[in-house]
Amino acid sequence: MNEISVPRPNNLDAFWMPYTDNKSFKDKPRMLARAEGMSYFTPEGREILDGTAGLWCCNAGHGRREIVEAIQKQAAIMDFAPTFQMGHPIAFEAAARVAEMTPEGMDRVFFVNSGSEAADTALKIALAWHKARGDSQRVRLVGRERGYHGVGFGGMSVGGIGGNRKQFGAQLPYVDHLPHTHGVPGNLFAKGQPENGANLAEVLENLVALHGDTIAAVMVEPLAGSTGVLVPPKGYLQKLREICTKHGILLIFDEVITGFGRIGANFGAERLGVTPDIMTMAKGLTNAAVPMGAVATSNQVYDTIVNGVPAGIELFHGYTYSGHPLAAAAAIATLELHRAEDLPGRARAMEPYFEDAAHSMRDVPGVIDVRNMGLVAGIELAPRAGKPTARAMDVFKTCFDKGVLTRVTGDIVALSPPLIVEKPHIDRLFGTLADAIRAVPA
């Protein structure tokens, strides 16, 4: 009989942690053991206020009974069913619930398991659409500097964060990038959408002039989160939409962060008044209780691809766990919570107080910019001389020690609390952050 050797519970060696300085973490671990409402709790029982909704994803807060019970019930009924050439009712119900929330005319939903898979799926759908229309020459994909679209080779190639790319050599061919909107003169400490920078979208015209009719799609985040909260300038997304329509280019919105109430509407497309052709989502879709992502497309995109094939499989793409029963159950319960509690409306109602608290950081030494929209804020710090990112990481560690979870990217502290946040939570969140910035060396 084979014997199973069970490692000690505190053995940290086996888990290769993602996006982590493994050596530093394992020297001084920061462990979370339980979560409820607005808070995590360490193994010792110390409360940590969640200022980041986990990882931009627990929009309805932690430990929601309705979601837990839906997952438990579904696990007892059916743990798994394939969706290749067959289906199960709960996946169709989940897709219909998503379609009720997406912009008008975007009623077709393809399920995946993460934002990364959603990005790669959206890009493949864009290429398939052009081929179905007889435009097979349209193979070029355009992203944006400092964009983040997950870690698949498609999303990584279209993305524009150097640290995510430089370690892995060659990316996808036929990719180009628009400039980012960070650091535009006159936009420092803007509240909501900044006034300047819409003209940066016109660089797409230059790319069209350079590449001709080979551009298939442009992928951008309505509000860029992972790179440090870059809020789109007024008119910027409208101009991108206009240029894409003019030249027959599909516009893809990566709504993995902005979806499901984060900026005060179901999706960023609704809040910002621009409808894309394809939209990716994940994170808040299931409140992160079970991994799930999705791609919503316009009916035109779906119909063109599906009707372009006389018989048989129309799109040679999918995942074993597309529409997984437990994930679908979690999605249905989560979206019902969003509707019943009007979480987007709560975010809009709390936005002014959150905005004032964020901009109160302007007077903290070392803060060089503040950006915000909805319940998202980016607090940018002057980098430590010769040691970029070190100052913000020290702030992150100090906040954790003081009982508040933040997130850092570069020298920017990003905050995105669950949408159930109340004013005392906001006071504690920004008060602790201000004390931490003052406490760490410049």
UniProtKB/TrEMBL annotation:
InterPro entries associated with the record: Aminotrans_3 (IPR005814), Aminotrans_3_PPA_site (IPR049704), PyrdxlP-dep_Trfase (IPR015424), PyrdxlP-dep_Trfase_major (IPR015421), PyrdxlP-dep_Trfase_small (IPR015422)
Cofactor section: pyridoxal 5'-phosphate
Classification via Pfam families: Aminotran_3 (PF00202)
PROSITE patterns according to UniProt: AA_TRANSFER_CLASS_3 (PS00600)
Keywords: Aminotransferase, Pyridoxal phosphate, Pyruvate, Transferase
Keyword Transferase in record: yes
GO molecular function, one term: pyridoxal phosphate binding
Alphabetical GO biological process terms: biotin biosynthetic process
Segments crossing the lipid bilayer: none
UniProt record similarity statement: Belongs to the class-III pyridoxal-phosphate-dependent aminotransferase family.
Name the UniProt record assigns to this protein: Beta-alanine--pyruvate transaminase
Organism: Falsiroseomonas stagni DSM 19981
